[in-house]
Design brief:
This protein is 16% helix and 30% strand. It is α+β, with helices and mostly antiparallel strands and 364 residues long. The strands form six sheets. It has a five-stranded mixed beta sheet, with no helix packed on it. It has a four-stranded mixed beta sheet with strand order 18-17-20-19, with helices on one face. A three-stranded antiparallel beta sheet has the order 3-5-8, with no helix packed on it. The longest helix has 27 residues.
C-alpha cells in the first residue's frame, strides 16, 4: 500500500474531488444570487386599472368600445401589453394604453415591464341590447355638447346637445354637490374656478354619451382689492407781471388748460386655452375621422390653432394640424392608435405626435 499517495490526495481530511464539488457549488450559488439581485432591480411593483371612455363603472364593456388601461408606473418605463384576444403585442412608454375588444368574453390583459415583471387584469366584454355591434342601432352616434367652455364663476350657463332623444341625463362628474338634470337643456352655476367635466347620456345608451371639459375662470369683478381713487392734479398758474385795470378789463386772464394725461394702453385680450388630456384629445380626433368634428373644434385647446405642428407616424417632416384634419376627415377606415401632446414650459400644447393606420384586409 502506498500511504504517501493516498494522503497527497487529501487536504484537511477531505478528498480533492469533494473540495472541487464544493467550489463549483459556491460559484453557481453566487451567480444565482447575482441574477436575482439584477432581476429584482428591473422589476418594480405596479397596478393596472381599466376604464371605458364612456365612464363605465360596472366592469363590463361593450364589444368595440375603447378601453383605457392605466398603470401606476412612471412614464419613462417601457411596457409590453398582451390583450389575450389574439391581437398583436403593443409597446408603449406611456402610463396609458387604449384597446378595443371586438368579441364577447372574459380576457386577461397582461402588462410586462422589462420582460420580467408582469401584472394582469381581467375585463368582461358583453354585448347588450343596444350594443355597438347590434344591427338596428349600429348607426347611433355620441351627442355633441354646445356651451361655454370657459365660463366665469358664479354665473349660470346653459348647455345643449345636437341629439334628440327620449331621455337625457346631465351630470358633473366627481362633484356630488351638482344635481343630475333630466332635460334637453341643462343650466349649471359653478361656484369656484377650476376644471369641471360635464357628461351627457341620451336614452340611457352608453354609445350616446359624451363629455365636455369646462375650465371655470375667476370672476375678477368680485376680487377684493384696494379701490383706486381719482386724485386731483394741481396745475400752477404762469407767473407773469401784474396788469393794469384796463388791460384786465380788455384781456381777462384765461384759466390754464389742464394737462393732458397719457391714454391708457389697452392690451388685446389673450386667447383662453383649456387644458386637455391625451385620451380626451384622441377621442375628439376620432370624431374628425367620423366626420363629426373639424379643425375649429380644437381652437380652445391649441394656442396656434390649425398651424400647430404635427408629427405623423414618426415621419421626419412636420405637417400642420389643419393638414392632418384634412387628411383624415371623414375617412372612417382610419384608426387613431395614439396621441401624444408635447407641451412647452407654460403647459401649452406646442407640438402633437399622432400615430394612425388604415384598416387592412383583416381589420384591426
Amino acid at each position: 500500500m502506498n500511504t504517501h499517495n493516498t494522503l497527497a490526495h487529501r487536504k484537511m481530511s477531505l478528498d480533492t474531488n469533494v473540495w472541487l464539488v464544493m467550489l463549483v457549488t459556491a460559484i453557481l450559488s453566487l451567480g444565482l444570487i447575482s441574477y436575482n439581485l439584477i432581476d429584482n432591480e428591473s422589476c418594480v411593483p405596479f397596478a393596472i386599472s381599466a376604464k371605458g371612455v364612456t365612464s363605465n363603472q360596472d366592469g363590463v364593456y361593450e364589444p368595440g368600445e375603447t378601453i383605457i388601461f392605466r398603470t401606476s408606473l412612471p412614464e419613462e418605463k417601457e411596457i409590453t401589453w398582451v390583450f389575450g384576444d389574439n391581437t398583436a403585442r403593443q409597446k408603449t412608454v406611456s402610463v396609458n394604453m387604449r384597446h378595443k375588444f371586438m368579441k364577447e368574453g372574459v380576457f386577461t390583459v397582461t402588462a410586462m415591464l422589462n420582460g420580467v415583471c408582469n401584472n394582469e387584469i381581467k375585463v368582461n366584454i358583453k354585448k347588450s341590447k343596444n350594443s355597438i355591434l347590434s344591427g338596428d342601432d349600429a348607426g347611433a352616434a355620441a351627442p355633441q355638447i354646445f356651451g361655454n367652455l370657459a365660463p366665469v364663476e358664479g354665473k349660470s350657463e346653459r348647455y345643449i346637445s345636437d341629439v334628440i332623444g327620449n331621455s337625457y341625463e346631465w351630470k358633473i362628474l366627481d362633484k356630488a354637490s351638482f344635481p343630475t338634470i333630466n332635460d334637453q337643456y341643462a343650466f349649471f352655476t359653478f361656484p369656484k374656478p377650476g376644471l369641471y367635466v360635464l357628461q351627457l347620456t341620451v336614452d340611457h345608451d352608453r354609445r350616446k354619451r359624451s363629455q365636455l371639459e369646462i375650465n371655470v375662470t375667476e370672476n375678477l369683478a368680485k376680487s377684493k382689492g384696494p379701490k383706486q381713487q381719482n386724485v386731483p392734479v394741481l396745475i400752477p398758474y404762469d407767473v407773469r407781471p401784474p396788469k393794469s385795470d384796463k388791460q384786465a378789463e380788455k384781456q381777462p386772464e384765461k384759466a390754464p388748460e389742464p394737462e393732458k394725461l397719457p391714454e391708457p394702453v389697452v392690451e388685446a385680450p389673450k386667447k383662453k386655452i383649456i387644458n386637455i388630456r391625451n385620451e380626451i384629445f384622441q377621442s375628439k380626433l376620432e370624431g374628425v375621422v367620423q366626420g363629426q368634428n373639424d379643425v375649429h373644434d380644437f381652437d380652445a385647446y391649441l394656442p396656434d390653432g390649425g398651424n400647430t405642428k404635427v408629427l405623423i407616424n414618426d415621419e421626419k417632416s412636420y405637417k400642420t394640424f389643419a393638414q392632418l384634419c384634412q387628411e383624415i376627415g371623414g375617412k372612417k377606415k382610419i384608426v387613431i392608435e395614439s396621441v401624444q401632446l408635447m407641451r412647452a414650459e407654460d403647459n401649452m400644447i406646442q407640438q402633437i405626435k399622432v400615430k394612425y393606420k388604415k384598416k387592412g384586409l383583416f381589420g384591426l
